[in-house]
Amino acid sequence: MTAVIINGKEIAEKKKQEIAEEVKRLKSQGVTPGLAVILVGNNHASRTYVTNKQKTCQELGMNSVLIEMPEEVSEDELLSRIEELNHDPQIHGILVQLPLPAHINETKVIESISPNKDVDGFHPINIGRMMTGQNTFLPCTPYGIMVLLEETGISVEGKHVVVVGRSNIVGKPAGQLFLNQHATVTYCHSRTKDLKVHTKQADILVAAVGIPNFITADHVKEGAIVIDVGINRNEAGKLCGDVAFDEVSKKASYITPVPKGVGPMTITMLMYNTLKSAAESIN
Ligand code: GUN
């Protein structure tokens, strides 16, 4: 079998157009969605991500505010800046780019963001709402995976989904979203014994481990749907996922590539969450 390649870039573009239309509608009602992004220190990768988020805001007609703080900023100073943003009516979404310097308590920072402006979906209140199936901000990467599948016409109900990776940002919430949509979910991770025994059971295999080419053809059942969340660099410095694309794409029915797979969806869902927050602020 040769897999159909799920074009994340194209799907993201379509979604962004829909969001831009909604932004226009909100603006005509006097509300411009606004996202505040806080960048602490000078991590190169973080700066690139933040710049992309700002650019996308502008493309879609939203306001974006970048707040840069030096590496040595105190936790108190960061928390008081977040508190100001929590009360700023022009700001509908607050995102603190992670990772933070070691002297700052990440959990405390995440919990200081108003759950109503937590467009990352990282606040424990929003995670609890997600787990209980309530309306909330869903974490952007897992949400993006669900939208990719929906747009491709793939139903999740009753399918066996195996998630490899259990991070708070991707693996854990991805499994929960699949469960919410009536899939049967297995979580695997670095201490799972006989990983292949599990992954070969998957109708949908989600790879979120952060190791280049970790998932090979012998991890995958013939005809499985393979979602690659990895963003790695191989020995040659080339961008690659967690899945050995060339061999796995000969066995899977659908596969997401890296780049242009899950990646473009993450930022799109961040824009969606910011729009949602702005829309809810007038209701
Ligand atoms: N660092 C890497 N990914 C993310 C993300 O999705 N949100 C935030 N805030 N920081 C990140």
Automatic annotation (TrEMBL):
The gene is folD. The keyword Oxidoreductase applies. It holds the Pfam family THF_DHG_CYH_C. Pathway: One-carbon metabolism; tetrahydrofolate interconversion. Belongs to the tetrahydrofolate dehydrogenase/cyclohydrolase family. CDD domains: NAD_bind_m-THF_DH_Cyclohyd (cd01080). Gene3D superfamilies: Leucine Dehydrogenase, chain A, domain 1, NAD(P)-binding Rossmann-like Domain. Residues 139-280 form the Tetrahydrofolate dehydrogenase/cyclohydrolase NAD(P)-binding domain. This is Bifunctional protein FolD. Residues 6-120 form the Tetrahydrofolate dehydrogenase/cyclohydrolase catalytic domain. HAMAP family: THF_DHG_CYH. Keywords: Amino-acid biosynthesis, Histidine biosynthesis, Hydrolase, Methionine biosynthesis, Multifunctional enzyme, NADP, One-carbon metabolism, Oxidoreductase, Purine biosynthesis. It catalyses: (6R)-5,10-methenyltetrahydrofolate + H2O = (6R)-10-formyltetrahydrofolate + H(+); (6R)-5,10-methylene-5,6,7,8-tetrahydrofolate + NADP(+) = (6R)-5,10-methenyltetrahydrofolate + NADPH. It comes from Neobacillus sedimentimangrovi.
